[in-house]
């Protein structure tokens, strides 16, 4: 799935979105908002707070960055990365709560929630679990869904006429099945900037949005490097029509 920098120009897309997880209290939100075109905002269940959501939404609105609800399990201790068994109706209400809180804050700050993206363990769960995927969809109204190609949540969303946007990860290793290598395994996170850039360009022809992680040192500089490399080969970086 990962590509190389030497892709033929005829297969390169005209544009691709660049997104990042923001409001998680460990990222340089202002720095990343200066380079990304969509912001997945933590809604308080794994990280974030009302004050942080206000600040990120205000800055995003000022910069013309699209806002998405980054929903997760109620798991601040595990940063939303711990697999949990949650009843469908409970998860539906938790998702609805997160989307609702962020939506009200975004409105106050002059913007709106344009899409939904699961975080951490929930992101991986709805790739294959139809029950939890259905709960996520039921709790998020009619919002477009940002997820990986082939995900169960994508299939369910498309089946009821909801828009789905495909996501790729320039700084994560992929398995032969096109899934992400678990973070617990060696080499799961790519550290070499050249490798990240090459993978970003390779993925751009297969996805609608590229996620640049902001939870590591040098994240903002790397995000700028990825954007510059995409633009250098003629790929416009812009938010899709969420």
Sum this structure up briefly.
The protein is an alpha/beta fold. It has 8 helices and 8 strands, in the order E-H-E-H-E-H-E-H-H-E-H-E-H-E-H-E.
In total, the number of strands is: 8
Helix content: 25-40%
Tally of helical segments: 8
Q: Structural class of the helices, strands and pairings?
A: alpha/beta
* Main sheet: strands, sense, barrel: 8 strands, parallel
Q: Radius of gyration over alpha carbons?
A: 17 Å
What is the distance, rounded to the nearest whole angstrom, between the alpha carbons of the first and last residues? 25 Å
Percent in strands? 15-25%
User: Uncertain spans, ≥5 residues at pLDDT below 50?
Assistant: 1-10
Tell me, rounded to a whole number, the average pLDDT. Answer: 93
User: Can you tell me the overall shape?
Assistant: globular
Taken in chain order, the helices and strands follow as: EHEHEHEHHEHEHEHE
């Amino acid at each position: 799935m990962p590509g190389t920098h030497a892709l033929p120009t005829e297969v390169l897309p005209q544009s691709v979105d660049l997104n990042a997880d923001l409001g998680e209290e460990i990222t340089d939100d202002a720095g990343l908002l200066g380079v990304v075109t969509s912001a997945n905002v933590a809604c308080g269940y794994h990280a974030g707070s009302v004050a942080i959501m206000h600040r990120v939404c205000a800055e995003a609105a000022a910069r013309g960055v699209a806002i998405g609800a980054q929903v997760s399990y109620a798991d601040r201790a595990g940063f939303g990365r711990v697999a949990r068994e949650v009843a469908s109706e409970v998860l539906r209400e938790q998702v609805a709560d997160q989307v609702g809180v962020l939506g009200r804050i975004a409105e106050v700050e002059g913007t709106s929630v344009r899409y939904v993206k699961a975080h951490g363990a929930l992101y991986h769960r709805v790739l294959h679990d139809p029950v939890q995927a259905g709960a996520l969809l039921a709790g998020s109204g009619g919002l477009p869904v940002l997820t990986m190609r082939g995900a169960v949540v994508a299939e369910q969303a498309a089946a009821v006429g909801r828009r789905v946007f495909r996501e790729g990860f320039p700084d994560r290793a992929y398995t032969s099945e096109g899934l992400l290598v678990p973070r617990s395994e060696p080499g799961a996170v790519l550290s070499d900037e050249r490798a990240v850039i090459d993978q970003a360009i390779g993925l751009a022809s297969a996805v609608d949005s590229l996620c640049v992680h902001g939870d590591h040192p040098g994240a903002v500089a790397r995000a700028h490097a990825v954007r510059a490399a995409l633009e250098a080969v003629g790929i416009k970086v812009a938010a899709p029509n969420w």
